[in-house]
Amino acid sequence: WNSINTTLRLNISQHDCSVIFLPFFHTGGWNVLTTPFFHRGARIIFLKKFDADRVLDLSDKEGATILFGVPTTMDMLARSNLFPSVKLDKVRYAIVGGEPMPIELIQTWHQRGIAIRQGYGLTEFGPNVFSLNEEDAIRKIGSIGFSNFYIETKVVDDHGQLVGPDQVGELWLKGPMCMTEYWNNPKATAETITDGWLHTGDLVRQDMDGYFYVVGRKKDMFKSGGENVYPAELEKVIRTLPGVREVAVIGVPDRKWGEVGKAFITLEPTATLTEQDLIGHCVKNLAKFKVPKFYSFIAELPKGDSGKILKRKLLDL
Question: Quick check: 126 pLDDT over 90?
Answer without folding.
Answer: no
